[in-house]
Structure formats: structure tokens, C-alpha cells
Specification:
five-stranded parallel beta sheet; Rossmann fold; 5 strands; 37% helix; single chain
Length: 122
């Protein structure tokens, strides 16, 4: 699966990308909203994972973009009651802190695959 990751924390972004690659996915990264939308144009992802605190992120613009090009979204953030998306794309919200297997489970649920089991050492 081709997954676009967007997070302003470069260390976390690299950790997420490595986790996804170990699970057999292709990970493309962006550090801000301009990068997110640019990468989205370059190669349409199967799923987008983004931090709700992404610099320059306009929720209205994100909703408009997902309405025009429906891609499942997984939003990462601090608020446990936040809405993931205002668009028509399938979406989910994962609150910090979370375990790596929780991230993989959300990805599987959004992609329609079910649940992944992760070894404790991964």
C-alpha cells in the first residue's frame, strides 16, 4: 500500500515510515501542508496519515481536497474526541500516545483488511 505520512516532527515521521515499510508498505513523507498536497499530486496515495498540528494545514482545504479525490485519512493528535474529516473519505482519529500496533490496526481498518498482529520486538 502506498501511504503518505505528514508530520512536523521529523524523528517521529521517520519512525512511522520505518514501521510502515517493515509492514510491507511504501511510505512517502511530508513535513508541512505544502508538502502534503504536493506529494498528493505527485503520486495519489492509498491512505494519508497526518498530524493534526501540521504547519499550514487548513481543515477546509483538506475537506475540499478529499471530496474531490477521496482518500482514506488517519489523523493523529492529542484530542480524543476530534473529528477526523469533514469530507466524504473514510477516516479515523488516533490519539497520542498510541502503540505501533494500534497505528497498524487503524491502517488495516481503513484499507478494509481487518487487523494486523505485530510482534512485540517490532
Amino acid at each position: 500500500m502506498n501511504i503518505l505520512l505528514a508530520d512536523p516532527d521529523r524523528d517521529m515521521l521517520l519512525c512511522y515510515a520505518r514501521l510502515l515499510e517493515l509492514a510491507g508498505n511504501e511510505a512517502v513523507t511530508a513535513f508541512d501542508a505544502a508538502g502534503l498536497f504536493g506529494r498528493w499530486e505527485e503520486k495519489r496515495p492509498d491512505l494519508i496519515i497526518l498530524n493534526t498540528d501540521l504547519p499550514g494545514l487548513d481543515r477546509g482545504g483538506l475537506a475540499a481536497r478529499t471530496a474531490a479525490d477521496p482518500v482514506p485519512l488517519l489523523m493523529l493528535g492529542l484530542c480524543r474526541t476530534a473529528s477526523a474529516s469533514d469530507g466524504d473519505s473514510p477516516s479515523a482519529y488516533l490519539a497520542y500516545p498510541f502503540r505501533p500496533e494500534e497505528l497498524l490496526q487503524q491502517i488495516d481498518l481503513l484499507s478494509g483488511k481487518g487487523t494486523i498482529k505485530v510482534n512485540d520486538h517490532e
